[in-house]
Amino acid sequence: MKSKFTILSALFIILAGFRLSDSLFVTPPHFPKPNYDFSKNPLTKSKIQLGRALFYDPILSRNNTISCSSCHSQYSAFTHTDHDLSHGIDDRIGFRNSPSLMNLAWKSSFMWDGAVHHLDLQSLAPISNPLEMDEKIENVVSKLQTSNIYPNLFYEAFGDSIITGENTLKAISQFMLTLVSANSKYDSVMLKLSSFTLQENIGYNLFKKNCASCHKEPLFTNDEFKNNGLPLDTTLNDLGRYKVSQNPLDSLKFKVPTLRNIEFSFPYMHDGRFKNLKQVLNHYTKGIASNNRISDELKAPIILSSNEKVDMIAFLLTLSDKQFLFNPQHSYPKEILLGTVKN
Amino acid sequence: MKIINFILAFFLIAFNSTSYSQSKRIQISITPTFEHQILHLDDSSFIRNDWNNLQIEVLKFYISNIQFLKSGKLVLEEKNSFHLIDAADKNTWNIVVENHENAIYDEVRYNLGINSSTNAAGALGGDLDPTKGMYWTWQSGYINFKLEGTSSVCKTRNNSFTFHLGGFLEPFYAIQFLSFFIKDQQQINLNLDIAQLLRRIELSKQNHIMSPSTDAVNLSKIVAESFKISEN
After folding, report:
1. Which of B124, B138, B139 sits opposite A166 (nearest CB)?
2. CA distance B200 to B218
3. Which of A43, B153, B188, B192 has the fewest beta carbons under 10 Å from its own?
4. What is the value of ipTM here, to two decimals?
5. Contacts of A119 in chain B (CB under 8 A)
6. Other C-beta atoms lying within 10 Å of the C-beta of residue A193
7. For chain A, which ranges sit under pLDDT 70?
8. What domains does chain A contain, in order, with CATH numbers?
9. Which of A342, A204, A230 lies closest to A295, judged by CA?
10. Does B139 reach chain A within 8 Å, measured CB to CB?
């Protein structure tokens, strides 16, 4: 009898936990199952809030000037507008364009070259990169431990005011996992709540024919690495995935980025070489550099008339999700951070 | 009140000593050495002028997945078995494994480094916490073995050598599986001799390995071969 009660209680706690997680992270009905294992880091409100504070707090950088949001601002779909190459601490220039951040629970690797394979460990890269935040996670933890607010926030989140690297990274993950974009016009059309205009529909059909094999719906990326025929920028000599795998077949391959919110995530490509969508489409129709490692999907030429390019762009703009871009739950947590400014 | 405290203390001691006597504890001591001299990087570097002005500044490595076998059959394995051994901190040199079932064994096995599935598990705590300085940041993965120092044969900046060995994906999976046959002993003494390791590296040519690679895998094998078990 006692053991039955224990089993029932355990079942109740597990189910209650799932329901709690569910309400904080809802898989959109037309999305696949997420890749992130939520059982290893179950979402809670206090952990998400802690992660949000950390995401926006420059305390993560060596001289407390650069936060994650410096290169990932909400209004631009959490990327860095206006800069082909993102800049970090002391205005040092990096060598890639910061990727937009959304729907990260569905990704299996991170960065343009997939160097990071787990969301929890992703933040370590920008924190320690000398061109980005130039700080050590050990120092971050000790700075957090002596701050006015974080021991309490960690206590609320993890039941322990002793701050660890593990909990710091998991909290940042929790916030990033909530950055789900699934409320664009495209989504409402897929859910049969609205319909495309004639022009958007033509653009959608062109997209399905020419682009969807790599920019796979509904996430608009297949999360793979492809060589899309960009000529090598010899000022950077960035060979992409090759740096990680050291496999010559991976030379010049980069992660296929999502096209969601592409209206706001300019400039485009891993080095931000294209300023607008027209330049991107012109690349695919007439700019592809001939090399023998170009992805199979691009071996046959893509032919689009000027009108078709306009139609395609009309479709791509249906991927903008204003609810996501202006969601107050994703914005700067002034209620937490503004109280910490010291005189 | 004092009497109650005394009685409580008595029972606590009695209970603890009973539980200890019920199970054997196996202690594994892992000692970094240099030509049989203990390599303790306490407050200063280890210096050997007769070895091309060799200085060793950092020596850290992971021991994981400790198992005991009898006639090739698993009889005991440590749960959550991840240990960061640091030449600068003697407290990390001893590992205690509880042998609750009083298992009889004739072999000990362990890994040098962290396996793929643990590498793929996300942020972890304890000895695996990324604040321990054994996690790469520019790409994912634990550093299994870290050796840093200087030698006059290294024609590098500050004559430095740096070996950060790791990698959890094929073909650069660097973890090493070690095994030693032992008596049914409760104290196991292992040592990792850095002199033996450095005799097999041509430091003038090979002095920097800091990412997963064939060189990292090959050197990891040499590190594994530099572990020796000593008789009690």
Report:
1. B124
2. 11
3. B153
4. 0.74
5. 122
6. 9
7. 1-22, 339-343
8. 20-181+325-340 (1.10.760.10), 185-320 (1.10.760.10)
9. A230
10. yes
